Amino acid sequence: EADALRGRPDSIILQNRARARELNGLYAAADRDYAVAISMTSNEVAPFWLRAALVKFQLGDGTESYNLMRRVENRFPEAPEVRAATAAMLQARGEEEGARREFLE
Prior knowledge:
By secondary structure, the protein is mainly α. It has one domain: Serine Threonine Protein Phosphatase 5, Tetratricopeptide repeat (Alpha Horseshoe). The protein is built from seven helices and no strands.
């Protein structure tokens, strides 16, 4: 039975492993784990999606990270972490005024 359980992915385990990989600088591996975890919960935006977006941003996937961030922002519009991350992404895209507005709102 334990072997059968090990063979099935679990969203929480994938999120935790992704976070561990992220903290150790293994961004590509973290991105893969986050992607699978998101695919398992795709109808339900969760806070860990913010970390997934930031990993994509770290890997240079600006478009995909920004799109994912927007979904998180729609679900959690008042979360300060989301606002700060969105402002950082806008700044990196050269949208200084938008970044300032997002950060100060």
